[in-house]
Amino acid sequence: MPKMSSIRTENLTIRFGGHAAVNGVTVGFQPGELTVIVGPNGAGKTTWFNLVSGQLTPTEGRIFKGDREITSLSPSARAKAGIGRAFQLTNLFPHLSVLENVRLAVQARQGAGAGIFLRASALTALRDEAQAVLERTHLSRVASLPAAALPHGDQRKLEVALLIAMQPDIFMFDEPTAGMSADEAPVILDLITGIKQDRSKTILLVEHKMDVVRTLADRIIVFNNGELIADGEPASVMALPVVREIYLGVGEEEVA
Question: What rounded mean pLDDT belongs to the chain?
C-alpha cells in the first residue's frame, strides 16, 4: 500500500484572465524527501508555491496535507497546520530584536498567549529555546539587533530561524540563497541540510543554481508554461532533452 503524501496537489490550476499560470498540477511529496523545483522564469514555480502556502486561491483543484484538505485555509491557518514558508514569517516584528522575534515564534507555536501574562519561568524557557535556535542558525551575535537592521544575509538566516522555531512538517524555501554572497550562501545550505536530517520533515525548494540543486536534491520536478513536465531522480531529470532545452537557457556543460 503506497504511503500517504505529506503534502499534495490535485489538478491544481490558477488562471489570470485567459492565461493558466499553473495548469492541472497533480503531485505529492513524502516525509524525509527534499524536492527541488526548477524551470525557466515564468514557468509557474513560485505561483504553485503561492497556491500551496495560501497566498493565492486556485481556480480549480485541491490541496491536501496528509488526508486533510486545506484548499480553503488561510496562510496563517496553514502555518498552524504545519506548513512553513520562509517569507511568511520574516520580520514579523521588524523593530523588535532578533531574539524577541524568534522567541515570539516559539511562543506562537506553543500557543502560550500574550507575553504580558506569562510567568517569569515560562518566559525564561521560551527565551532559552529561542537562543538555542539563534545558535543553530549562527545569529547569536546579532540577537539584540532589531530585525529590520540586519544585513541581507542575516535576514535570510532569520527566515530559517523563524521556520525552525515554528517546527513545521513542511518547509518551503523560494530561492533561499538569492542575493547572498559566496561566503554567506553555504550557511543557509548547511541549515537546510540540517533540517533534511530529520526524516519526518518534507522540504520543497525553488532554486535556479545548479550547484545547490546537485548538493541538496533527492528529487527534481520541472515546471514549464504552468505545467509539470518532469519528475524524478536528479541525474535522470536533468539529462532529459526537454529539460536541457528549457532550463533557463543553460548549456549542456552546466547541467551535466
Answer: 87
